[in-house]
Amino acid sequence: MSEDDDTSIAADLAVIGFGKGAKTLAATLGRKGKRVVMIEQSAQMYGGTCINIGCVPTKSLVYQAEQLSERNPAAYRRAVENELALTAKLRADNFAMLDGIESVSVLTGRAELVDPHTVKVTLVDGGGTVVVSAEHLVVSTGSEPRIPDVPGLADSGVMVTSTDLLATPELPRRLVVLGGGYVGLEFAAMYAAYGSEVTVLERHSEILGQEDDDVAACARDLLRENGVTVVTDAEVRDVGTDGDAPATVTYQRHGALESVYADVILAAAGRRPVTDGLGLDAAGIDLTDAGAVAVDDHLRTSQPHVFAMGDVNGGPQFTYVSLDDYRIVLDQLAGSGTRSTTDRRAVPYTLFMTPPLARVGLTERDARAAGRRVRVAALPVASMATVPRARIVDEARGMMKVVVDADDDVILGAALLSYDSHEVINVVSLAMRHGITATQLRDEIYTHPSMTEAFNQLLGALA
């Protein structure tokens, strides 16, 4: 059922937000015959952040940029059209997935908790209200971009979020990115690939400060090669107008004021959990100091029958972590109740620049700071004769690095800045989770030619 004509619904489970973990939980319990109500405030967000304004559209644009023979606004416009068509199809597929389950209702409207078991849903387009009473509730409202408090930014007329930019068919001539984190750098690399003049303003002394210095430096060199100007130690002061561009971004660097022209300014200063207007106070649901819904190791809130999944609970902001949240909550509702967030180990992540940077585990810096005796191998991809795959695809830039415990040969972490690293990192993560040693991974048999066989040479270089 797509819209329920009743003014009230009694349900086993009410879910607020159509994200990865939430929709999977709703579908799983719905197929088991449970009465489930999925509440999503916008028909443009069926399926959640990933397929609509996150992973899928951004990676679509990255992939299409990598296939370009020439960079120009027309190519970008075609890429955006393709990306929007893809997300529209996935959105429809996700709606149909739940709508086709007899015991599941999808309500499109704004949800507000009025007590610990009751949600008032104000339907879109003046459709009235529906009151949902449920035995269990899940809050899965995700996160939203954090807008920096910079004078003149909000009123500049050219500030956008990542969501806005993905739906903009006109390629910015000059794009200024505020923030050198994962979102900022991914968009910077992507738009430079289409031909924008991109400047990243990062307030810290280096981008990717959580990475080892050699990895961060390699990433910065690659961004520069790809046409991105990275300015570090840049404290943005204000946004105004002065010159031949719609906006001028003024920043202080090393005691001096400097400026850069912008046709579009991307606010990429992180994301914050979406909790405003949900009525969490009325339901007795606590928040953390950072504004996330407070949860225990089983993702239960301060109301034990209410769970929080995905970005809104303050955990790692990854779709695959949201999917693991689903496994934990499902285990609470229909399993042994033993699975928890403490079971997570060696969770990888990837920055989809070209080539991508994939990471898992400890950096060398953090391992040494923790007092571990380590062996380290770090090799430029171009020097690895046993990895012809990189040359076959004409992408031999980047580096690979692995950190190993010197006492027991356990892999502590890896940074792969190379072609296909977003795939290869999963091999390292699997090895770390299941106690496969560096020597065992080194001596495995891998397909050829593949990027995975880099482990034969990389782990052989441990020192």
From TrEMBL:
Cofactor: FAD
Binding site for FAD: K59, T141, G142, S143, D311
One Pfam family of this chain: Pyr_redox_2
FAD/NAD(P)-binding domain span: 12-322
Binding site residues for NAD(+): G179, G180, G181, Y182, V183, G184, L185, E186, E202, G270
Cofactor binding note from Swiss-Prot or TrEMBL: Binds 1 FAD per subunit.
Keyword tags: Disulfide bond, FAD, Flavoprotein, NAD, NADP, Nucleotide-binding, Oxidoreductase, Redox-active center
Domain Pyridine nucleotide-disulphide oxidoreductase dimerisation: 347-457
Disulphide bond pairs: C50-C55
Active site: H448 (proton acceptor)
GO molecular-function term, one example from the UniProt record: oxidoreductase activity, acting on a sulfur group of donors, NAD(P) as acceptor
Domain of life (superkingdom): Bacteria
InterPro entries recorded: FAD/NAD-bd_sf, FAD/NAD-binding_dom, FAD/NAD-linked_Rdtase_dimer_sf, Pyr_nuc-diS_OxRdtase, Pyr_nucl-diS_OxRdtase_dimer, Pyr_OxRdtase_I_AS
Family under the similarity heading: Belongs to the class-I pyridine nucleotide-disulfide oxidoreductase family.
Protein name, as recorded: Pyridine nucleotide-disulfide oxidoreductase
